[in-house]
Amino acid sequence: MEKFTSSDYRSPQNNDWCASCGDFGILKALQQAFVQLQLSPDRIAVFGGIGCSGKTPYYVGTNGIHTLHGRVLPFASGAKLADPDLTVLAVGGDGDGLGIGAGHLVNSARHNLDLTYILFNNGVYGLTKGQPAPTLQRGEQTRSMPHAANSGRLNPLALALAAGYTWIARGYSYAVDELAGLIQQAISHPGLAFIEVLQPCPTYNDLHTREWYEAEDAGDGEPRLYRLAEHNYQSCIQSGATVNDANTVRQNCYAKVLEWGMHIPIGVFLQDLDTPVAAHGGIPAEKGRAEHLQNAIDDARNNSSGHSLTDIESCYGDLKIDACRLATGDENGQ
Amino acid sequence: MDNTYHMRIGGPQGSGIDRVASLLARACVSAGGEVLTRREYHSNIIGRHSYVDIALWNQAPHSVQAYCDLLVSYDAETLFRHIYRVNAGGLVIYDPALESASIEKQAFLDAPLRRQLEQEQAAGPTIADILASANERGIQLLALPCTDLLKQLAKTSDLSRGEVKRVTALLAMAAVAAHIGLPVEVLYATVDNALAKHQRLLPLNHRAIEIAYQQVKTLGMANPWPFPAREVGDERLLVNATDSVALGKLAAGLDVQTYYPISPATDESTRLESIGMVTLQDGSCYQPRIVQMEDEIASISAAAGAALAGARTSTSTSGPGLSLMSEALGWTGMTEVPLVISHYMRGGPSTGMPTRTDQGDLLFAIHAGHGEFPRIVIASGDVEDAFYDSMQAFNYAERFRLPVIHLLDKHLTATSQSVKSFDTDKIAIEHSKLIDANNLTSRAAPFTLNKDAVSPRPLVGQAGNRHWLTAVEHSPDGLVCEDPQNREAMMEHRMLKLKLILDDVPMEEKLLHLPANNAVMTLLGWGSVKGAMLDARQRLAEQGIAANILLLRLLCPFPAAEVQQCLQSDVAVVVIENSFSGQLDVLMRQHLGQGADHIVVKYSGRPFTGASLADVLMQITDGQAQPRMVLRDPYE
């Protein structure tokens, strides 16, 4: 018997996404992954950026924190730093992560904190009514754009690979079970995981629609979306892998992330078990930190003595100046 | 030495100025003196002029002075820049090899100072000329042939010429030490300690000290050390504000600090990193996480995220960093997250003067971020206050569930002071009142409306509690709600804190009031002007002029009632501020309906010094004073 069921991860908040929005599939997959992992809802924090996708935290029954445009990764990272045992997810749109928050998307990979980042890619800024997002190709023009996009497309997976994410995948919002499986793996991965989710925006993106993604024949008799797992693709860099072996996996991964348009691979692109997870300040004992936090919380609750717990003398180091005892002269060094 | 003795040591950056000045200061403290130092430097790694002032006395000096009693140099630029700031009866230590150096050859001498020197000083174009003129003004000269002494040292050392050259600054410093009578053993011990990891350099360093002492003694210019030796048990720390803030944060139980490198704030985070593991009083250890982020936006965002999970969290920045943090500052105000931001002001706007001091961020700190939300802004007056204020900042943040901006400035980062060991029991540690998650029947409401108290706080990750947080306008439950009545209630709920703070924070935490009998003026300031104000007041008192001091610590919300209470209608109010506009005067007008009678401002990027400030204040009693007076000094 499962302790937590899908109702534990549901929210009473009214959902105001457009009918048939791709976000619904992602939300469902997220909740499904939580059930599969049987994570206690009070020990999960979902952080959202700004935009339609940024509202996801409202619709999950865990802790849900709506942050600022582009800043979801630093906010989520902070919570993970403070509470290393907390399951932390960051969600945001392609404009949020690749436009205003691109610096954070890139640099978060360097920390490799144990988080999951889900990037909802719908090609447009939906909540501001359909401006081109950084994932739209130059020359593409969606429904509400007055002219075709005159800037080129950022490739989210290529960027994640270059930045050094240690787990990289792509899912599709209408393949819910499959996406739930990816999210489950991402949460279980010990390090920073990146999932791009192809997510049609039925209101503003009339190019990358459900029909477009799900075409069984993209023009050459083959479907547009295909599964990496079905193509004998090796995504894993084992712990202790040689530089050569690791680079071979990354090179193959790069070739795969470039595929777009006619055929779009989904599944796990990279699983790097070699790069160490962040240990800021060289802390080996994640547990010790968590205990300290628990103590702080207990202190607060009990409103204990109020005395500083710190042995401040132990912090002085070279700031302290000894009274100089002279080699010659009397006891006081006169 | 019958009063505070002011030494100035100058030279090119990268030549060890800072290091040897710090060694000298440490040795003086070790031998029983009290010091206050001031460091002026360029945003440059090597070559530009920098100098350090060391004020030495048997009790803690309040401020350094524009003029010095001793100037030591081993390059020509230092002499050109500072020789006109040596007091009559003072001493100049110089390298005679520089005598032929001319002013035209000084590439880094800025144009205005060059013109100033050429126009005002008719001494002549070479070092020999200005030394002769100084001598005529009653200044003693001590020739320290650094160039020759280095050659001598090179002969007996097996170190490379480059390594030998690096003791130039030490030679100059040791000559100062010999002149003031610092026992040579103390200097050896200080140097040994500093070079513990570089044993092979010790013989050369000892030899350099030895020959400098010999030189000064031979010239008959060695004085006796004026202070009794320091007693064991009466040790001192030598700290600047970045050190004392770092220590204060650890005393307060810092869990997470985020930062992005920026002058002059970075030293604080570096200090925290170098301390690393912290021992607690029960003997256990923990290691706060000091995390360098990709920019200041990430720094404050990650800090906010950590604070959500219950960590004692702070971030530290300067100038442009706070501009970048503005948006997320509003987020913490809106979601009522306790967060401490240590802001070290520097010359602005924009890149401005990264290594020079300024107080021009006061109104920005009070208003940063769009929309209206409560925050606390406090400022520290000196290095010691900075320790206790940074402890207290966390208490305020947690007690009132809001961001606290702790204002410091470059001057305090560049002022090292000998202080007694900090007393962590002076400030009781407080935490937010938390939601009781044990008795929750439904989700925790992060914001309960309450007319007389801050609402209890939920933590992300707290067992048994789940909640939503958003900086979109929300209901007490944390759910998005733009209903007009809800908006009014939530705005009132948040802004009520400003009143709660003014009611709750005791007067002594709001301001420092030092009244004087028969005062003719009240010196009103905040932050690092404290030292110069105290020094100026003493100097005025020696002239028979009494002045009150009112130093504000709490600047937002503004303690108008207490300020009003401390002011007397027949006593002139003088605002003193390192800014162009005198922003405290703006606040006075805003909150009291009446501004100061005079403002004394200095915006050259250099701090106020006691004697210069006293000179300007004297004009007020002479009836010569303008409403706005600018303190200028071309030589700093």
User: How would you spell out the order of helices and strands of chain A?
Assistant: HEEHEHHEEEHEHEHEEHEHE
Supply the helix-strand structural class of chain A.
Answer: alpha/beta
Average pLDDT rating of chain A = 90
Largest beta-sheet details of chain B: 7 strands, mixed
Oligomer, anyone? heterodimer
Can you give the mean pLDDT of chain B?
Answer: 95
Unreliable stretches covering 5 or more consecutive residues of chain A: 280-289, 327-334
Give start-end ranges of low-pLDDT stretches of chain B.
none
Radius of gyration of chain B: 27 Å
CATH superfamily caption of the largest domain in chain A: Thiamin diphosphate (ThDP)-binding fold, Pyr/PP domains
Which descriptor suits the 3D outline of chain B?
Answer: globular
Describe the overall structure.
The complex is a heterodimer of chains A (334) and B (636). By secondary structure, chain A is an alpha/beta fold. Chain A folds into 2 domains: 6-272, Rossmann fold; 289-328, no CATH class. In chain A, 30% of the residues lie in helices and 16% in strands. Chain A is built from 9 helices and 12 strands. Chain A has helices at 23-37, 72-82, 94-100, 102-111, 156-163, 176-188, 210-213, 243-257, 286-302; strands at 44-48, 63-66, 87-93, 116-121, 124-125, 131-132, 167-172, 193-198, 225-227, 236-237, 264-272, 320-321. In chain A, the strands form 2 sheets. In chain A, strands 1, 2, 3, 4, 7, 8, 9, 10 and 11 form a 9-stranded mixed sheet that branches. In chain A, helix 6 links the parallel strand 7 (167-172) and strand 8. Residues 280-289 and 327-334 of chain A have low confidence and may be disordered. With 636 residues, chain B is α/β, with parallel strands linked by helices. Helices cover 39% and strands 19% of the residues of chain B. Chain B has 22 helices and 24 strands. In chain B, strands 11-8-12-13-15-14-21 form a 7-stranded mixed sheet, with helices on both faces. The mean pLDDT of chain B is 95. At the A-B interface, strand 2, helix 2, helix 4, helix 9 and strand 12 of A face helix 1, helix 8, strand 7, helix 10 and helix 11 of B. Strand 2 of chain A pairs parallel with strand 17 (468-470) of chain B.
